[in-house]
Write a structure and sequence with these properties.
Belongs to the DprA/Smf family. With 422 residues, the protein is an alpha/beta fold. The chain has 3 domains: 99 residues, no CATH class; 201 residues, 3-Layer(aba) Sandwich (Rossmann fold), CATH 3.40.50.450; 57 residues, Winged helix-like DNA-binding domain superfamily/Winged helix DNA-binding domain (Arc Repressor Mutant, subunit A), CATH 1.10.10. Helices cover 50% and strands 10% of the residues. The strands form 2 sheets. The chain has a 9-stranded mixed beta sheet with strand order 1-2-6-5-4-3-7-8-9, with helices on both faces. The chain has a two-stranded antiparallel ribbon with strand order 10-11. Strand 3, helix 9 and strand 4 form a beta-alpha-beta unit. The longest helix has 20 residues. It is elongated.
């Protein structure tokens, strides 16, 4: 029976825009099968159904048992307004009803795409925070069982969004923050686009310890990935995480679909991090949706002369977002300052003990090395003013102490936490 409800929902998603008041009313009080019947049959609606809801007790039981907002008879509009509105829109919707049920299913199966709706066990519960803007369903690629994590570990879900034309600073800040979040098993949610989005996905995949390192919310059908240039990373997300969309197969992204998609990013996330945003930005649209449904909002401060940071500074100035300079800010806000302060003091003590054992040259090398990116010995030697041979000796000694490692081409530091974990 759930499969039948799922199919009816898929056909509704084919022609109806998100958050359409008529469809929302129908799904709440009639259920997906009866709503679809009324939409596709000019003489379909009766006052008996309007007052009593789904006539099939079996379907009605599934709707009620699923815990969705199924309230037959409790209407927010009159019978006349509903039937008149459906009749008016039916003419426009007819042009979108191109696919038959069998074709819809065949396309989904051939593309490895599945559909989840509010009556399914895997449905992410926090989408209901959107109220009447809750999606009718979600198309997905990846393992659908992973959707459970979005509900069970909601506090670990962090959206990272920002400019598509990210600056070097913005990309670096994204990589740094996401790497630290992923190391603590956070699930990184973003939009799969250029700039900050793809930097967030890459960093999460590179460092993620979570069962679902990252999730991408798309603004088009999942039969084709957009942008095409990000296809490689998006295929990796399918393998290790999830890709989701409320847009039916075969539909391409449009500007308004990107804006509609942003509310889903906000709803699936406990915290929203805006790394870079111009004065008018899709990232600010995501932030607005998050504020409306009570999500924690964070903004990364940037160069006061950079147009890419104007939106972040605006969020901070208006008191909408907390300043984010390190993930400790998020963790302290979430788990309590005292416990984390004790952990930080312990970590600082361990780090100071390590530094005390280093020579002056090793200390300078340690400061210059990144915990993530490998840097060549030549580059490090140039920065600290040592001959290359002497630099190699110092790097080898750090490696022997478990404080540095090489990939054969460059070097990076190993922090105490990483050493303890290994």
């Amino acid at each position: 029976m759930r499969a039948y409800i799922r199919l009816c929902t898929a056909l509704i998603m084919r022609f109806a825009d998100p958050a359409d008041p008529l469809i929302v009313e129908g799904l709440k009080t009639l259920g997906a099968p009866l709503t679809l019947y009324c939409v596709t049959n000019p003489e379909g609606m009766t006052e008996t159904w309007w007052n009593g809801g789904e006539p099939s007790e079996e379907i009605a039981d599934v709707l009620r048992a699923a815990g969705v907002s199924y309230t037959p008879g409790q209407h927010s509009m009159s019978y006349e307004d509903f039937t008149r509105g459906i009749a008016k829109k039916r003419r426009r919707w007819q042009g979108r009803q191109r696919f038959e049920p069998r074709r819809e299913c065949a396309m989904a199966v051939s593309c490895g795409i599945w559909l989840v709706t509010p009556v399914d066990d895997f449905w992410p519960n926090h989408l209901q925070d959107l109220g009447d803007e809750t999606p009718y369903g979600l198309w997905g690629k990846g393992d659908p069982a992973k959707l459970r994590i979005l509900t069970e570990y909601f506090q670990k879900c962090v959206a990272v969004v920002g400019s598509r034309d990210a600056s070097v600073y913005g990309a670096d800040a994204t990589s740094y923050l996401v790497h630290e979040l992923a190391q603590k098993s956070h699930i990184i949610i973003s939009g799969g686009a250029y700039g900050i989005d793809v930097a967030a996905h890459r960093a999460a995949l590179a460092a993620g310890n979570a069962a679902v390192p990252t999730i991408a919310l798309m603004a088009g059908g999942l039969d084709h990935f957009y942008p095409v240039q990000n296809s490689e990373i998006l295929h990796r997300i399918v393998e290790e995480g999830l890709i989701l969309s409320e847009v039916s197969i075969g539909n391409t992204p449009t500007r308004w679909r990107f804006l509609e998609r942003n509310r889903l990013i906000a709803a699936l996330s406990h915290d929203i991090v805006v790394v870079e945003a111009r004065w008018r930005s899709g990232a600010l649209n995501t932030a607005r949706h998050g504020l409306e449904i009570g999500r924690e909002l964070w903004a990364v401060p940037g160069n006061i002369n950079s147009p890419n940071s104007v939106g972040c500074h605006r969020l901070i100035r208006d008191g909408h977002a907390h300043i984010l300079s390190e993930i400790q800010d998020i963790l302290e806000a979430r788990e309590g300052f005292d416990a984390l302060q004790e952990e930080k003091q312990s970590h600082d003590h361990e780090q100071s003990t390590i530094l005390d054992t280093m020579s002056e040259a090793q200390g300078r090398l340690w400061d210059m090395m990144s915990p993530r990116a490998y840097r060549s010995a030549e580059e490090l030697a140039g920065h600290i003013g040592l001959p290359l041979r002497g630099t190699m000796v110092e790097l080898s000694q750090l490696a022997q102490q478990g404080l540095a490692e090489t990939d054969g081409f460059g070097w990076r530091k190993i922090r105490q936490a990483a050493r303890s974990a290994s």
